[in-house]
Amino acid sequence: MANPGYGKRSAPGQRPRSNHDFAHLPAREAAVAAYIDRLPDGADISVKTLARVLPYGQCALGTALRRLQREGHLRRGRERLPGTDSVRWITRSWFSRTARADDWWAAFTRGDVMGEPPQGRPRPTRSRAHVLLAALGRSAPALSLSEADCAGLAPLVVQWYVRGAGDDDVLRALTTGLPTPVHHPAALVRRRLTDKLPPTPAPEPGPPASRPPRLMECAECGVPGRPEALPGGLCRVCRGAPPPGVHHHAPPSAPAIHAYATEMRAAILEKRREATLT
């Protein structure tokens, strides 16, 4: 067992254990996931400890754990202990035998998660915000959205939940006074979710919330960040992505380089000629 606060924590709302929970993973990752799944909460699942009990080295286990993060089975972060006078954060390693999408982990971080999908082939659980958007077309057919639209707009709905709004508040803001016709449903929903976002409520006196806030960390370098900025449990730098606003362009072709060099030589010669005449 790990020191208090440093061991495994089971994610809520998982399916009952079966023989096919990790069939979608490679053999090594499936074996590691099955072993972690059967450990009790509070067990040490660090690379060093796993290497002492599993037939894999630390490098191989590190690679396996990163794969489990990408597949939605593992996240690392911090959680504030409830019921304490001072702010105390403890390290957590959350594990889920049911694969979770990035938006589910984001909702879990905020204390806002949905139940399990119907029985069948395992698939990531949709968040409450995603479910609301997917069902939007039932009450307002003009606002029917695609799966990709729902995934992209769900974080905006979560901001409403964070500010105290309920499902009825969101639906009212999205469906009241619709133009006819609606040419771009996703664009209209995005605009309304942004423009009509409620203000941040003032803190109410009383005991702290029963659900402690959580903070995700990059599993590679440990930098804290919002779940949306840590897809697959990794920050931008550890994913090898360029910094915001930086775009990689393909290098110019050889003919383009030669043409540019010719233009520069002509410009230099013209400058020299002008200098000689003056």
Give your account of this protein's structure:
- With 278 residues, the chain is an alpha+beta fold.
- The protein folds into 2 domains: 1-111 and 213-252, no CATH class; 121-210, no CATH class.
- 41% of the residues lie in helices and 8% in strands.
- A 5-stranded mixed β-sheet has the order 1-3-2-4-5.
Question: Which secondary structure elements does this structure contain, and how are they paired or packed?
Answer:
Blueprint: E1 8-10, H1 27-37, H2 47-53, H3 58-70, E2 74-80, E3 89-95, H4 102-109, H5 128-134, H6 136-139, H7 147-162, H8 167-175, H9 185-195, E4 214-217, E5 224-225, H10 236-239, H11 254-277
Parallel strand pairs: 1-3
Antiparallel strand pairs: 2-3, 2-4, 4-5
Helix pairs in contact: 1-3, 2-3, 5-7, 7-9
